[in-house]
Amino acid sequence: GAVVSQHPSWVICKSGTSVKIECRSLDFQATTMFWYRQFPKQSLMLMATSNEGSKATYEQGVEKDKFLINHASLTLSTLTVTSAHPEDSSFYICSADTDRESVLTFGAGSRLTVL
Amino acid sequence: DAKTTQPPSMDCAEGRAANLPCNHSTISGNEYVYWYRQIHSQGPQYIIHGLKNNETNEMASLIITEDRKSSTLILPHATLRDTAVYYCIVRVGFGRALNFGKGTSLLVTP
Hints:
Chain A is an all-beta fold. Chain A is 0% helix and 52% strand.
């Protein structure tokens, strides 16, 4: 089946530093990938839609200059949290559309803790 | 995409069937019903989806009412590992994100 791999699975960083999270589709090509974040005891919130070769589309309230998304190939999208602060601590999850009747496959998530 | 309504929580005894309801009264004709679940601190896992007909796979069955305004996910023999938050989502199709509601927190007890 379709597999989406995220790396790292968890990361701890100091306030003010930048962190990059990778999302790879391992056995299929993903024209579109989606980035979500999830705070404790809350549901997943869509952050942005990432399209290969073009600029990402951000949801209202998500700062595009803070959450940089790059989708340079059909199998890789990256999310960079720039100048991270403690309030950015969250569970970040990516997903990709497979060609199997539009089933979205999700990565295992990346837990970011900003000290 | 149409909104869905699910009970916030449910309990089920291990080995019994878990029936999780979902209302989607504003669903349109080209929207599919998708079910995902999220086990604590993991990414969501696809379970099943359907358009009009009932569907069954190795994980679950999906029963969609004739008017498509509601559906039920059935886990035929729940195990402790089925304890998770279950999300019912309606979505048009390819290239669109899934919009997650609050889901149903299912607790399977021994």
